[in-house]
Amino acid sequence: MLAAARYNDATVSYLLEAGAQLDSTKLESTTELLYACDEKPYHVNRAAQEKSVQLLCKHGADVNVTTWDGKTPFLLAAANLNLGLMRLLVAHGTAMTAQDMEGTNALTLAGRKVGYNGESRKDVIKFFGQTEY
């Protein structure tokens, strides 16, 4: 469901209501939720992105699914300093302690990124200090 990668929540909602299958890995060995949590191309509309992710989670998307290199939706959100998405995924039961195939966790990924969209590494690091994981 490529609509998830484009953050088109109206189309995502329509397809989910029509019975579209979630967690399918037919396109490039990734799922709709992984597409929606990735920020390529950059400069995404984060409000639209969060709506799409919320819809996918609400319909049972696996929040702990991984990419070929072990990145979960939470790791992708942390790597992009997307605090809103991180909070949303935590609310849906994501594993905050997940690590990719190289053993890198969300806090380390966040520490490597320079902030944009008003969020900084400090905000994400502070989030980890306020959340049990």
Automatic annotation (TrEMBL):
This is Ankyrin. Keywords: ANK repeat, Repeat. The keyword Repeat applies. SUPFAM superfamilies: Ankyrin repeat. PROSITE patterns: ANK_REP_REGION (PS50297), ANK_REPEAT (PS50088). ANK repeats lie at residues 69-101. The lineage of its organism: Eukaryota, Fungi, Dikarya, Ascomycota, Pezizomycotina. Pfam families: Ank_2.
